């Protein structure tokens, strides 16, 4: 995307004027469907995934009480979804470019619904972990397909910015509905009911998507690199798994180092393989562009700093302040409402200030909001927390909006699936590593203060050091002065760990602000293009016309 297109090319002297191309119905996609109608269907698809990404946060204490998972099992229950999803995004994103993005999307709908039913009926931790892994597979099929179809049906950058704003606002709605609906269901039903909300959404979106969504493919030259896709999937899985294990009791054990090393080696081999191939799975030249690569890095840093923090905040509100799951969801609602507002206003902010100022300013605002949340302590301060969550939501969504828009606009239309897969991989990779990183920081500050409480047996202290919920259980079993001392020490250690995690998060966000300085200063708009194999989203500009918007 170079240069700002304001008019069509001039007709040279002596060259006859070309006959105008036949006009298509403006704003129409496949079968005469408005591209804004297509956007609605895509947003419902996104809602399906976004709700599932956050609905489990308020249900973690209930899952722990019912299934009694170990510390590592509980971490897997929470983290296996983004881990599997991140591992398979490149595979399914590029597969959609080859066999059809709508086809992959509809298959993802079906798998997501089946996995949701399996998760709801799980009676042991292993079954729940497997169901969450299948949900990750379904999410990996849905997420890049929604973004790549959006890239196809909105070829004009200014209209696409509006569409991305709506898309990201719906993601914020899903993040809000997850804790709220989950908390409401937990008030009346068992924890498995939080997964059942996916099934009605799937039953609606599957037939509607089949009827209304346009089918499109990318460049089909050359065979699809199956081996490269598998190398990327296993490489990402090993790398993120190794980082996950860093948060365990043995961060330098073979079970941690070996998967991480193998994953990194596979990713290096994957990059070398793509450079040698005539028709690579991922266009590395696209990734090497400063705007694209910087946008991906900004997405990773934003999620790295904040997703683990959100999970810790949900535990703080329930276990330290004693709020119910529904009350916890309501407390987190301002964060999501602010993110919705930032998404809907993102197009105007982007056009007014440009990608660089938007993403950099969003990082700085989010870092300020994170530091303001250090007021979280033993006492409830609802006004301060509400203001902090409002700033946090607005700053985070401003950052992600600018980064996603720059990334998609920098990618050619024929590689939309691969570009969307890279963007979503960075999102899920940042989320997965963020949970492991901030969880490790939290555990490093929490565990030593709980293991050696005066008057508490050493075995009880070691059991209590796994989590605050386990510390409360151990304290209840001990009873008397020892139980009271352990409960107080665990609360103090958790708050101290929370403040440490907030400081680390703010540092990562400021690092992201520095990285965003490499983004373009202004908004550059080129003429809309249509990818090979795509169903045009509307009439493109004629030889003597300026692009719409």
Short description:
One of its GO terms (biological process) is response to antibiotic. This protein is mainly alpha-helical and 549 residues long.
Q: What is this structure's SSE topology?
A:
Blueprint: H1 35-55, H2 60-67, H3 71-99, H4 101-120, H5 125-153, H6 157-188, H7 193-196, H8 198-212, H9 226-246, H10 254-276, H11 284-288, H12 290-320, H13 325-372, H14 382-410, H15 416-451, H16 458-464, H17 468-478, H18 480-515
Helix pairs in contact: 1-5, 1-6, 1-8, 3-4, 3-5, 3-9, 3-15, 4-5, 4-8, 5-15, 6-13, 6-14, 9-10, 9-15, 12-13, 12-14, 12-15, 12-18, 13-14, 13-18, 15-18, 16-17, 17-18
Instruction: Estimate nothing, just give the exact number of structural domains.
Output: 3
Percent of residues in helical segments?
A: over 70%
Flag low-confidence runs: 1-28, 527-549
Reading the helices and strands in chain order gives HHHHHHHHHHHHHHHHHH
> Do you know the CATH architecture of the largest domain?
Up-down Bundle
Q: Strand count, sense and closure of the main sheet?
A: none
pLDDT averaged over residues: 77
- Number of extended strands: 0
Query: Quick one: overall form?
Result: globular
Transmembrane segments: 36-59, 71-92, 104-123, 129-150, 162-182, 188-212, 224-241, 253-271, 292-317, 357-377, 383-404, 497-517
Organism: Streptomyces cinnamoneus (Streptoverticillium cinnamoneum)
Protein name: MFS transporter
GO biological process, one term: response to antibiotic
């Amino acid at each position: 995307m170079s240069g700002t297109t304001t008019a069509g090319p001039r007709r040279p002297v002596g060259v006859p004027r070309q006959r105008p191309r036949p006009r298509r119905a403006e704003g129409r996609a496949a079968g005469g469907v408005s591209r804004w109608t297509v956007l609605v269907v895509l947003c419902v698809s996104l809602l399906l995934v976004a709700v599932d990404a956050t609905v489990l946060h308020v249900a973690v204490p209930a899952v722990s009480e019912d299934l009694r998972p170990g510390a590592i099992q509980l971490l897997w229950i929470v983290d296996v979804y983004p881990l599997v999803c991140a591992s398979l995004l490149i595979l399914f994103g590029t597969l959609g470019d080859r066999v059809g993005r709508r086809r992959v999307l509809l298959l993802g709908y079906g798998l997501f619904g089946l996995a949701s039913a399996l998760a709801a009926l799980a009676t042991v931790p292993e079954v729940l972990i497997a169901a969450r892994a299948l949900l990750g597979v379904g999410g990996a099929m849905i997420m890049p397909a929604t973004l790549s179809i959006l890239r196809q049906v909105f070829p004009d950058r200014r209209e696409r910015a509006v569409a991305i704003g709506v898309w990201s606002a719906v993601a914020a709605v899903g993040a809000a509905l997850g804790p709220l609906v989950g908390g409401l269901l937990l008030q009346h039903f068992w924890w498995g009911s939080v997964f059942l909300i996916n099934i009605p959404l799937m039953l609606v979106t599957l037939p509607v998507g089949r009827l209304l969504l346009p089918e499109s493919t990318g460049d089909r030259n050359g065979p699809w690199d199956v081996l490269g896709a598998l190398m990327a999937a296993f490489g990402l899985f090993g790398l993120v798994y190794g980082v996950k294990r860093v948060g365990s009791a043995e961060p330098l054990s073979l079970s941690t180092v070996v998967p991480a090393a193998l994953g990194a080696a596979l990713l290096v081999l994957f990059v070398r393989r793509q450079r040698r191939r005539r028709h690579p799975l991922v266009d590395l030249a696209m990734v090497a562009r400063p705007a694209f690569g910087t946008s991906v890095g900004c997405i990773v840093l934003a999620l790295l700093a904040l997703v683990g923090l959100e999970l810790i905040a949900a535990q703080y509100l329930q276990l330290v302040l004693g709020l119910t799951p529904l009350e916890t969801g309501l407390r987190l609602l301002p964060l999501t409402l602010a993110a919705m507002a930032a998404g809907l206003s993102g197009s105007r902010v982007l056009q007014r200030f440009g990608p660089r100022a938007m993403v950099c300013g969003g990082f700085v605002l989010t870092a300020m909001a994170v530091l303001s949340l250090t007021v979280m302590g033993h006492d409830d301060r609802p006004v301060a927390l509400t203001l902090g969550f409002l700033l946090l939501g607005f700053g985070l969504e401003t950052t992600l909006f600018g980064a996603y828009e720059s990334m998609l606009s920098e990618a050619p239309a024929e590689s939309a699936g691969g570009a969307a897969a890279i963007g979503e991989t960075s999102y899920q990779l940042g989320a997965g590593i963020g949970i492991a990183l901030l969880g490790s920081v939290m555990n490093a500050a929490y565990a030593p203060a709980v293991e050696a409480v005066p008057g508490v047996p050493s075995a009880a202290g070691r059991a209590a050091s796994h989590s605050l919920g386990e510390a409360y259980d151990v304290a209840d079993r001990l009873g008397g002065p020892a139980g009271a001392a352990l409960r107080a020490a665990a609360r103090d250690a958790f708050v101290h760990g929370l403040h440490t995690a907030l400081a680390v998060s703010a540092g990562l966000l400021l690092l992201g602000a520095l990285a965003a300085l490499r983004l373009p200063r202004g908004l550059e708009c080129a003429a809309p293009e249509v990818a090979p194999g795509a169903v045009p989203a509307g009439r493109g500009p004629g030889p003597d016309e300026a692009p719409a918007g």
